[in-house]
Write a structure and sequence with these properties.
The protein is 43% helix and 14% strand. It is of the alpha/beta class and 243 residues long. It has one domain: 3-Layer(aba) Sandwich (Undecaprenyl pyrophosphate synthetase), CATH 3.40.1180.10. It has a six-stranded parallel beta sheet with strand order 3-4-2-1-5-6, with helices on both faces. Strand 3, helix 5 and strand 4 form a beta-alpha-beta unit. Helix 3 packs parallel to helix 4 and helix 4 packs parallel to helix 5. Bound molecules: 3-methylbut-3-enyl trihydrogen diphosphate (2 copies) and magnesium ion. One 3-methylbut-3-enyl trihydrogen diphosphate binds next to strand 2.
Length: 243
């Protein structure tokens, strides 16, 4: 069962799922008197570095928080720049991901993106669907509360339609209604830039995830910092409420 896999990995088995809240692009740019977009551009390079390094570090699943459902609150110009970078990333990187046997999933509400971006997402997911290497998920226009509310709505509809018996609902079935239904829970959640909060990311899925906070700003994050985060994680004692 997928929802138990984090436990399995704690015992040294099958999966290693790392989730990352990629934060600090703006501060990286500010420290260099550059526009915030320059930080986002460098941040995209960190994504490439981390995706490349992940399989070599034993990571089987990598989930990156790229744009939150709250990030629309940013000035129009910055949101536009981020959408431009997203379009560029999807059109330039997917081929390389496919060559490296990476499977790409996008989690989040894609209805707010332009048709061009939606098409790029669909093409990328279709092309890489059967790849058995790194399982890369990028959260775009994602918010955990929104995900949980959407899941509740679908469950309520299924119950009304007679497809779901409310008394038969358990944690496994519930998790099946989430956007991450085919992913194991993260073993470790890394947040860069020194902030120590979850910012509405994977609230259900991170129930027993180890949290690693690093002061490194996302544009400076790469193989070295990722490897250090895994060292921190491996020094934890995961008890899941037991002894
Ligand atoms: C993370 O960097 C990128 C996104 C949230 C899209 P920020 O843009 O949040 O950078 P800071 O937090 O302002 O430094
Ligand atoms: C979280 O970063 C979202 C992403 C990394 C995509 P933010 O910079 O938006 O989070 P807050 O506002 O500091 O909580
Ligand atoms: Mg931030």
């Amino acid at each position: 069962m997928l929802t138990d896999s984090a436990k399995d990995m704690g015992d040294g088995n099958a999966f290693l799922h790392v989730a990352i809240i990629m934060d600090g692009n703006g501060r990286w740019a500010k420290a260099r008197s550059l526009p915030r977009t320059a930080g986002h551009k460098r941040g995209a390079e960190s994504v490439r570095a981390v995706v490349e390094a992940a399989p070599e570090l034993g990571i089987t699943h990598l989930t990156l928080f790229g744009f939150s459902s709250e990030n629309w609150k940013r000035p129009e110009g910055e949101v536009g720049d981020l959408m431009g970078l997203l379009r560029l990333y999807l059109s330039k990187e997917v081929r390389g991901l496919h060559r490296n046997n990476v499977r790409l999933r996008i989690i989040g509400d894609r209805t707010r993106f332009s048709q061009e971006i939606v098409t790029l997402i669909e093409k990328g997911e279709d092309l890489t669907r059967d790849n058995s290497g790194l399982q890369l998920s990028i959260a775009l226009n994602y918010g955990a509360r929104m995900e949980l509310v959407e899941a509740a709505k679908t469950m309520a509809r299924d119950a009304v339609a007679g497809k779901l018996d409310p008394d038969g609902l358990d944690e496994e079935r519930f998790a099946g209604y989430l956007l991450t239904s085919d992913l194991p829970d993260p073993d470790v959640l890394v947040r860069t830039s020194g902030e120590q909060r979850i910012s509405n990311f994977l609230l259900w899925q991170c129930a027993y995830t180890e949290l690693v906070f690093t002061p490194v700003l996302w544009p400076d994050f790469g193989r070295e910092a990722l490897s250090q985060a895994l060292v921190d994680y491996r020094n934890r004692d995961r008890r899941y409420g037991g002894l």
